[in-house]
Predict the 3D structure of the following.
Amino acid sequence: MATMLSTAKDIADIIGQSSTGFGLTFATNLFVDTEPETPNDCVTIINSGGSEPNNEADIYNPSFMIRVRGAADKYSETYKLVQDILEYLHLMHDEEINNSKFLGIWATSDVLSLGRDEQKNRPVFSINFRAKRTSL
């Protein structure tokens, strides 16, 4: 049984390697756990817990949040990106990445507006997901 990466890193890789691309590149405008001050337009995937694993069956039930931030004048474009990511990931199944196989990914919320950040008045949205995964 291989060691799995964090759920957030696996999801970042799924998004970054998608055929749609979303225009996201890891460590440029796609981040894990820590959202930098720049660039204005970025996506951050954050591990947010989950429910208890079944270690005997090698089944894990993580949850994660995706934050999407845009430039102050790009509210509609930022909302469209977060909606596109939701539609891409929701109901994804049997997805292999790194040392994990995602048996299923489900959105647990619709798009949530977090308002605008205090520094630059940038729109910020989030969506929450749960997943079921196993190691490869």
The chain is about 20% helix and 40% strand.
